[in-house]
UniProtKB/TrEMBL annotation:
Entry keywords, A to Z: Allosteric enzyme, Carbohydrate metabolism, Glycosyltransferase, Pyridoxal phosphate, Transferase
UniProt GO molecular function: glycogen phosphorylase activity; pyridoxal phosphate binding
Highest taxon, organism lineage: Eukaryota
Span of the entire protein shown here: 174 to 1002 of 1002
Gene Ontology cellular-component annotations: cytoplasm
Keyword hit for Ribosomal protein: no
Family: Belongs to the glycogen phosphorylase family.
Swiss-Prot/TrEMBL catalytic activity: [(1->4)-alpha-D-glucosyl](n) + phosphate = [(1->4)-alpha-D-glucosyl](n-1) + alpha-D-glucose 1-phosphate
Free-text function comment from the UniProt entry: Allosteric enzyme that catalyzes the rate-limiting step in glycogen catabolism, the phosphorolytic cleavage of glycogen to produce glucose-1-phosphate, and plays a central role in maintaining cellular and organismal glucose homeostasis.
GO biological process, one term: glycogen catabolic process
Cofactor(s) for this UniProt protein: pyridoxal 5'-phosphate
Protein name listed in UniProt: Alpha-1,4 glucan phosphorylase
UniProt-listed Enzyme Commission number(s): 2.4.1.1
């Protein structure tokens, strides 16, 4: 009876009374208990990896505690929630980030010391969670950290791929891809929720029925797959709030065809069931290019459908109809990949909740917002109508109906302007009919955001010109940001400590604008000295890493010049390599006495090429071929080294960025939507060599031209150059270095031919030839500045000081106020 229950509750309360304690004794006991009972190793005999497992389970307990409290509290308060839908999250490692955000880093380090372990060593045991490709995916991870830190009631939703982004292995200078089966050794950072699961339907047909005098659509699926939730707690910094990243895994469904089993072919029936799991098996490794593949479309719908069932169930727990849905729910589409959520909400509201079209549309048009990460129209997603119709027959009907009504609206406004109608239509006519996912999203979202000011201008004038004319108020921009928790505090502890000492507070970890305070000390000799020391320590750490990785010794006194990001023609790693060839050529032809004036450089390049992107793979090979030549040339010695860091990922970035002097962000102007790597380097006091592209334009405004090395054609000039035919301004120097590659100076003459063709004569679409001279000038400027270490250090301090605007906290605050309409909801401590 009731008495029993309250006695039980009382007992539970006594047992659970108080939060977990973080004194060294409790932490040690906790870690050892997990080694013994969770990892099932003897507490008298376990290695570093098992210690890491025990440690992370102990941290996980603390995460779970706060995560429960946060959800209890939010349930009671029922604020408007943000649901962030993204097919990619590049989380990297979790241990260091978690203990720092929980505020127990030092306590754990002490506790481990007494057990004879070192925190840093154990942290190195963790592998990266690489459930994403590049910028878009790491941005999602940074934004989750900011949402948690600023107490926003938010959820992330995505897919739990069994294979993350491929591992890059270099053999003879060529990239090879290896599967990243990252779950092999268990994942302590996730919580499997066997009871949180939903059926997701595919294929089949739509039947029309009449129910209570109303026409209804009933979708009879051909296949059903179960989506099971895996929850990943995301702790905020300096707050109890810990939000949830819910990732779905596909499992065979019990609702599946009894028929198959009744026919007697038991073995094949089981094997067919097992195939369901392939839906969440792998991440597509294509960055910024789209192929209309059935499995990819299945992934998109699978994750969207499960997420929406979850979201709607949560809403219905405390609401009896959908009137308040737009006041309680904001759905953010991270690029167009989750845009099937739009017809899916329409379908659920109409077919399952029996709302009429107008009412459902009234809701749908208020809840969705979209961020676009692409620049060129060719990069926008299209899905063949036949494919969509066979996989999701009811959704295709709904999309057609949305388009029909949209076309009617356009006709009222523009009359029968068929060119415009066909450009704006959700359905693309042609040999293969396609659904344009971007157009679908633009019609249905209340807000569309670009990722930098320049990017918004491109969207308005080029990519979505027609839509902008029709709905100017829908278009906004939120310049990207990155989280200083991971990109300074976790990855650069010496700098973090130095900043706090000089500002007299560590409040900048939650309020990056405070970094401006460093400006007053930029010329202070003792700050400069400490600053240089910190940079030196990080450079030594990086050189040790390089030696361990590829067996090459580099001097930490040289300038470390770094370009790390996905390999793309528009990002122009080739420009960098041609510049290095030029530098090599100069040193080679120099009088011995002039060599003293050369600033020694270590050029570092890292990044993955999409497996099918031939030109990008040739760029990687060229980098190795050139490195082979330079690094073994005794005329050159330590004056120039070229290092390719294999298998670039988040944890490699955490090591490389703090140890860099100069970093390159040299895309052809107008091609990089924003760029976020630049922001990480900036925060860490690394100087930028960059074109006026994406967010760089805004970085220049914050720290000033004089503290950066800016070069090359700007967007307007690029447009003009292309209109007037390419390759107008090509220097002899450029011709010379390309010829060296072409004529086999670095070997592999035939293999590099097509690569050389991309930049010569009229085909130099990314304008390497045009920008080469000004690139070399900017590089010479950098050399000059580096010789004067005082000046360089001042520029470095001013870079960090001016980086406050590029915190993802600023981006998220802007989204919360101007796009999502959500407010902080802070769980009491
Ligand atoms: C990237 C943009 O290229 C980059 O400029 C921007 O900073 C970043 O998104 C975050 O906004 N785009 C992608 O990473 C991207 O499109 N990835 C494809 C896998 C979808």
């Amino acid at each position: 009876g009731a008495g029993d229950r309250s006695a039980k509750a009382e007992r539970m309360f006594q047992l659970m009374d108080g939060f977990m304690t973080n004194d060294p004794m409790s932490l040690q006991k906790d870690i050892l208990d997990h080694v013994e009972y969770t990892v099932a190793r003897s507490r008298f005999n376990f290695d570093d990896f098992e210690a890491y497992q025990g440690l992370s389970h102990s941290v996980r307990d603390r995460l779970i505690e706060r995560w429960h409290d946060t959800h209890q509290y939010l349930k009671r308060k029922d604020p408007k929630r943000l649901y962030f839908l993204s097919l990619e999250f590049l989380m990297g490692r979790s241990l260091s980030n978690s203990v720092i955000n929980l505020g127990v880093r030092d306590q754990y380090a002490d506790a481990l010391n007494q057990l004879g372990f070192e925190f840093e060593v154990l942290a190195e045991q963790e592998g990266d969670a690489a459930l994403g490709n590049g910028g878009l995916a790491r941005l999602s991870a940074c934004q989750m950290d900011s949402l948690a830190t600023m107490d926003f009631p938010a959820w992330g939703y995505g897919l739990r791929y069994q294979y993350g982004l491929f591992r890059q292995v270099i053999l003879d200078g060529f990239q090879h891809e290896q599967p990243d089966y990252w779950l092999n050794f268990g994942n302590p950072w996730e919580i499997e929720r066997v009871h949180v699961s939903y059926p997701v339907k595919f294929y089949g047909a739509v039947e029309e029925k009449v129910l209570e005098g109303k026409k209804c659509h009933v979708w009879v699926p051909g296949e059903t797959v179960e989506a099971v939730a895996y929850d990943n707690p995301i702790p905020g910094y300096g707050t109890r709030n810990t939000i949830n990243l819910r990732l779905w895994a596909a499992k065979p469904s019990d609702q599946q065809d009894m028929e198959a089993f009744n026919t007697g072919d038991y073995i094949n029936a089981v094997i067919n069931r097992q195939r369901a799991e392939t839906i969440s098996s792998l991440l597509y490794p294509d960055d910024r290019s789209y192929q209309g593949k059935e499995l990819r479309l299945k992934q998109q719908y699978f994750f969207v459908s499960a997420s929406l069932q979850d979201i709607i169930r949560r809403f219905k727990d405390s609401h009896s109809n959908f009137d308040d849905f737009p006041e309680k729910v904001a759905l953010q589409l991270n690029d167009t990949h989750p845009s099937l959520a739009i017809p899916e909400v329409m379908r659920v509201l109409i077919d399952e909740e029996y709302l009429d079209w107008e009412k459902a549309w009234g809701i749908v048009s208020k809840i969705f917002s979209l961020t676009i990460h692409a620049v060129n129209p060719e990069g926008l997603e299209k899905v063949p109508v036949d494919l969509l119709g066979s996989l999701l027959p009811r959704h295709l009907q709904i999309i057609y109906q949305i388009n029909f009504l949209f076309m009617e609206e356009l006709k009222k406004h523009y009359g029968l302007d068929y060119n415009r109608l066909s450009r704006m239509s959700i359905v693309e006519e042609g040999a293969v009919k396609n659904i344009r996912m971007a157009n679908l999203s633009l019609v249905c979202c209340h807000t569309v955001d670009g990722v930098s000011r320049l990017h918004l201008a491109t969207l308005k004038t080029r990519v979505f010109k027609d839509f902008h004319e029709f709905w100017p108020q829908k278009f906004q921009y939120k310049t990207n940001g990155v989280t200083q928790r991971r990109w300074i505090v976790v990855s650069n502890p010496p700098l973090s400590g130095l900043i706090s000492r000089w500002l007299g507070t560590d409040a900048w970890i939650r309020d990056m604008d405070l970094l401006l305070g460093l400006r007053d000390h930029a010329e202070d000799a003792s700050l400069q000295e400490e600053w240089m020391m910190v940079r030196k320590v990080n450079k030594i750490r990086l050189s040790e890493f390089i030696e361990a990785m590829i067996g090459m010794k580099v001097s930490p006194d040289a300038m470390f010049d770094v370009q790390i990001k996905r390999i793309h023609e528009y990002k122009r790693q080739l420009l960098n390599i041609l510049g290095i060839i030029h530098r090599y050529d100069c040193i080679k032809n120099m009088k011995e006495s002039d060599k003293e004036k050369v600033v020694p450089r270590v050029c570092i390049i890292g990044g993955k090429a999409a497996p099918g992107y031939e030109i990008a793979k040739k760029i990687i090979k060229l980098c190795h071929a050139v490195g082979e030549k330079i690094n073994n040339d005794s005329d050159i010695g330590d004056l120039l080294k070229l290092v390719f860091i294999p298998d670039y990922n988040v944890s490699v970035a955490e090591l490389v960025i703090p140890g860099s002097d100069l970093s390159q962000h040299i895309s052809t102007a107008g091609h990089e939507a924003s760029g976020t790597g630049s922001m990480k380097f900036l925060m860490n006091g690394c100087l930028l060599l960059a074109t006026a592209d994406g967010s760089t334009v805004e970085i220049i405004e914050e720290i000033g031209n004089e503290n950066m090395f800016i070069f090359g054609a700007n967007v307007q000039e690029v447009t003009n150059l292309r209109q007037n035919g390419l390759g107008v301004k090509k220097s002899l120097q450029f011709a010379r270095v390309v010829r060296m590659v072409r004529e086999g100076y670095f070997g592999f003459k035939d293999y590099f031919k097509s690569l050389c063709d991309t930049v010569e004569d009229s085909s130099d679409f990314y304008l390497l030839g045009n920008d080469f001279e000004s690139y070399l000038e900017a590089q010479a400027e950098a050399d000059k500045a580096f010789v004067d270490q005082k000046k360089w250090t001042k520029m470095s301090i001013l870079s960090t000081a001016g980086s406050g605007r590029f915190s993802s906290d600023r981006t998220i605050r802007d989204y919360a106020q101007n796009t999502w309409g959500i407010e902080p909801c802070k769980c009491p401590s």
